[in-house]
TrEMBL record:
PANTHER family: TRANSCRIPTIONAL REGULATORY PROTEIN YDFI, TWO-COMPONENT RESPONSE REGULATOR. This is Two component transcriptional regulator, LuxR family. CDD domains: LuxR_C_like (cd06170), REC_NarL-like (cd17535). GO terms for biological process: phosphorelay signal transduction system; regulation of DNA-templated transcription. It comes from Olivibacter domesticus. InterPro entries: CheY-like_superfamily (IPR011006), NreC/VraR/RcsB-like_REC (IPR058245), Sig_transdc_resp-reg_C-effctor (IPR016032), Sig_transdc_resp-reg_receiver (IPR001789), Tscrpt_reg_LuxR_C (IPR000792), WalR-like (IPR039420). Signal peptide: none annotated.
Amino acid sequence: MKIKIGIVDDHTLVLESLIMLVNNLSNFEVTLHATDGKDLLQKLERQHDYPDILLVDVLMPYMEGSEVISTVKKSYPSIRLVALSVLNDSLNALKMIKAGCCAYLSKNINALELKLALTEIWSKGYYNSQLIDIENGALMNESTPLTDRELEFLELACSDLNYQQIAKKMFLSIKTIDGYRANLFHKFQVKSRTGLILEAIKRKLITVN
């Protein structure tokens, strides 16, 4: 039985390309597609067999991606929600994660990574595309302790503050903040602030509201 995928994107060419890409993957099929949030909600109301995973564009007319995500999460809690974007900034990622996403994928994703992402989202309920690829080594053990200051920085990094504002709030220089960032990137084996946020949530070090 194939895993059911839904896709929401207001760009027809992108939508059609994604439908074709997913349908060419073994074990997956697109059972619902929509051009915006309103179109999606209308189609969900008429359906009895909902998608298992829903890919939602971040920037759309009528309803922003985060609004679509939070609405679907409340009404259809069984659907696993994924942000899909050309943007790769942490603030948009955080906004979508707070709304209820379990992954943040680039629209430039290739077939191999898309299959990996959908498989992990289905089996684990989570996927972080911002991890560093490591040939010989394991990720930080989830029980690895962080210092109080690292935890404080981590909490602020998962807010909408930029690094300069975080430095001011922690009464530290931007150079020291850069050091905390580099240390946590290394400990979590991630390559971006987005990856750090996703890993912190996964490890239950941070709760987003």
